[in-house]
Q: What sequence folds into this?
């Protein structure tokens, strides 16, 4: 087995995950914890593992399926060591960071590296490890020590270290500065690790004299120094590495030149170029709670992007803070309230993503009501689906106190209730319905079934504790809602549609986690197609964008975006941020 370690220096957020994904990732080592505001979204795997969002990059870039064991955290390692100590495996010896913690890290890496994730038999040839955090972080010290020992143990020719660092450009003089990278490499060496390849983040291509300086002071050959400069979208990164022959440098360090094939990136290149050239825009209002941090909805944004590119549309995301739509905001900050509603009414489609807690719930209900009454394409995910059901019960069934027991435990009309697979309400980690679950289509002619290719069932990933109350389903369906997808027991509602609406869909699962470039999620494709007036063509193609639609759009003739209420909304370009457009509230790629 050969190993590639990807580390980061100087500052966080340089793109270690994307760099590792572009090399061909297999294992992620993260020494941090996860929360939406601190680290972005929690990415859910098929086996129910809740992991760092970088594993989402790995799955999307490689179209592969990882497991919870591909994500190592400090907590997992310490727990495994403590469990061994409790069982007496250490025979009463004093348990220490070295060797017990460091040995556990190495054993975990070697064990997981042998497990195939690409659907093929036998272990992979190369295992790529991403070390979370930045060199020098105290939290990652046991991992660095363990990986230093590991590199010595597997030996030269079996271990390659790629260090991602920053080469800033001072605007005053316009000069690329190498000192931060020099200090980062010096710190790395002081911890027992020596980089074989430098991947330098910068705003532009590194000057040759800068490369020469880095090679001299960091003791890395100039041909092993690559530039990861700013690009229109992250799909360019594998192409950057290929064009600078990074793969050849890695193969040379691992003695794999004789067995490796030339990378086939034709389809990837075509999609990347297409994404850069799109000009007809589709505007989606994202109504959520964490609008100040786009990484909290990273997979949702990626799924929207995948669907938009498939429909040959340039994505514009308008961030709408759910609380700003509420009456309380109208009284306290009328300008903020008006701006939020203007964004919502100017969108071609509305998306309410998943979330927890009652903050902003009323605003989400108002957004769902607006989309339903004005025939604006709508997609609700997890909590977003529950919001759609609550709004329908309140407005159509006239059950004004209808609510989720998550928000109002005493409601007399609980249309969303606590339905865990096990455990209690107080221990969240043990009560989630997590991972891949099967959904069966109960209505063959529904939009969702057609978008999924007229299959009988789909497997999608879940992360929730509350669900639609099965005792209210008949009442809701009699009024016009249709629960077209359910689990095998027929008690858990998985997909809901409003048959009288052009596209009003809610899903209890999280389809964004399985969306891929070139293979967009069915429900997201439906939303984007409906938003740009092409849903009929996509439905006729059983979830595939027809050639006539693609050709028409690529020739610059985008269909008019007219909603059934008669309003025509003309899209205007937002500010471009690396190829994805937003209203300026923080989208970044």
A:
């Amino acid at each position: 087995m050969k190993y590639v370690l990807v580390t980061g220096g100087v500052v966080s957020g340089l793109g270690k995950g994307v760099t590792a994904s572009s090399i061909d990732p297999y294992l992620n080592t993260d020494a941090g914890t996860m929360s939406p505001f601190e680290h972005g979204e929690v990415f859910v795997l098929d086996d129910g593992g809740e992991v760092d969002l970088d594993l989402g990059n790995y799955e999307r870039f490689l179209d592969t399926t990882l497991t919870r064991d591909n994500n190592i955290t400090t907590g997992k390692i310490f727990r495994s060591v403590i469990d061994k100590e409790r069982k007496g495996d250490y025979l009463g010896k004093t348990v220490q960071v070295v060797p017990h913690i460091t040995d556990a890290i190495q054993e975990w890496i070697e064990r997981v590296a042998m497990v195939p994730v690409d659907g093929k038999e036998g272990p992979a040839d190369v295992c790529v490890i991403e070390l979370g955090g930045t060199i020098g972080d105290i939290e990652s010290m046991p991992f660095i020590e363990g990986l230093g020992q590991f590199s010595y143990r597997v030996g030269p020719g079996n271990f390659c270290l790629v260090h991602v660092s920053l080469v800033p450009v001072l605007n005053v003089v316009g000069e690329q500065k190498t000192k931060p990278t020099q200090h980062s490499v010096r710190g790395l060496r002081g911890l027992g690790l020596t980089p074989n390849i430098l991947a330098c983040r910068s705003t532009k291509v590194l000057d040759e004299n800068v490369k020469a300086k880095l090679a001299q002071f960091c003791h890395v050959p100039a041909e092993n120094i690559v530039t990861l400069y700013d690009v229109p979208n992250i799909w360019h990164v594998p192409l950057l590495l290929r064009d600078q022959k990074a793969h050849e440098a890695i193969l040379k360090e691992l003695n794999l030149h004789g067995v490796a094939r030339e990378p086939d990136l034709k389809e990837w290149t075509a999609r990347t170029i297409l994404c850069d050239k799109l000009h007809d825009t589709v505007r989606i209002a994202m109504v959520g709670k964490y609008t100040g941090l786009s990484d909290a909805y990273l997979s949702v944004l990626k799924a929207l992007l995948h669907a938009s590119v498939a429909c040959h549309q340039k994505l514009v995301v308008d961030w709408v803070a759910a609380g700003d739509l509420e009456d309380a905001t109208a009284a306290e900050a009328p300008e903020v309230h008006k701006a939020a509603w203007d964004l919502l009414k100017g969108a071609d489609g509305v998306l309410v993503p998943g979330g927890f807690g009652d903050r902003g719930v009323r605003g989400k209900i108002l957004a769902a009501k607006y989309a339903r009454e004005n025939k604006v394409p709508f997609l609700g995910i997890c909590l977003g689906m529950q919001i759609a059901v609550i709004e329908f019960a309140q407005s159509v069934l006239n059950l004004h106190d209808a609510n989720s027991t998550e928000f109002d435990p005493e409601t007399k009309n609980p249309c969303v209730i606590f339905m865990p697979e096990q455990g209690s309400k107080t221990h969240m980690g043990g009560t989630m319905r997590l991972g891949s679950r099967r959904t069966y289509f109960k209505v063959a002619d529904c939009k969702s079934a057609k978008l999924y290719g007229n299959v009988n069932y789909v497997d999608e990933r879940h992360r929730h504790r509350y669900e639609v109350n099965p005792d209210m389903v008949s009442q809701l369906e009699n009024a016009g809602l249709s629960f077209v997808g359910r689990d095998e027991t027929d008690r858990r509602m998985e997909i809901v549609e409003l048959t009288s609406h052009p596209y009003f869909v809610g899903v209890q699962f999280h389809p964004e986690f399985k969306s891929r470039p070139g293979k967009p999620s069915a429900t997201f494709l439906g939303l984007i197609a409906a938003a740009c007036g092409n849903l009929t063509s996509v439905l006729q193609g059983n979830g595939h964008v027809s050639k006539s639609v693609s050709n028409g759009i690529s020739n610059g003739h985008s269909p008019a975006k007219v909603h059934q209420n008669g309003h025509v909304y003309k899209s205007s370009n937002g500010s471009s941020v690396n190829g994805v457009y937003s209203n300026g509230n923080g989208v970044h790629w």
About this structure: The domain at 278-540 is CATH 3.40.50.880 (Rossmann fold). The first helix runs from residue 16 to 23.
